[in-house]
Design a protein that fits this description.
- The chain is about 35% helix and about 35% strand.
- It has a 5-stranded mixed β-sheet with strand order 1-2-3-4-5.
- The two termini are about 15 Å apart.
- It contains 3 helices and 5 strands.
- It has about 120 residues and is α+β, with helices and mostly antiparallel strands.
- It has one domain: Trna Endonuclease, Chain: A, domain 1 (3-Layer(aba) Sandwich), CATH 3.40.1350.
Length: about 120
């Protein structure tokens, strides 16, 4: 399955979750439900997976924790905030580079329309 096919499933799932629940819940609630729904669809999903940072010979075991990694091809960073800060897309791009993954989705569930809360971030895709 390609990154774009996986992305389509993730976006449709986010739409379904947002349609049922709406905005305003904690990020952890959306994360748990997205994890459940994506696994229910047969996808391999890692949740809160730590990604090490390597600097010269120094390996730091926890550089960051990815909210969701789907099929080892797409990182999903979930938010439930009033406004996405300019640093959030940059942060996800850094995660993609460090993890060697080419596609990320930044999803803010705290939007009246979920389509306005989804940002696609690419790393050499």
């Amino acid at each position: 399955m390609t990154e774009n096919e996986i992305s389509s499933i993730i976006v449709n799932t986010a739409y379904h979750v947002h349609y049922k629940l709406g905005p305003g819940l904690l990020e952890s609630v959306y994360e748990e439900i997205m994890y459940y729904e994506l696994r229910k669809q047969g996808l391999n999903v890692e949740r809160q997976q730590s990604i090490p940072i390597i600097w010269d010979e120094l390996k730091m075991e926890i550089g960051f924790r990815a909210d969701l990694i789907i099929e080892n091809k797409v990182i999903v960073e979930l938010k439930s905030v009033e406004t996405i800060a300019p640093v959030h897309p940059k942060q996800l791009l850094t995660y993609l580079k460090v993890a060697g993954i080419r596609l990320g989705l930044l999803i803010n569930f705290n939007e009246p329309f979920i389509k306005n809360g989804i940002t696609r971030i690419v790393n050499n895709l």
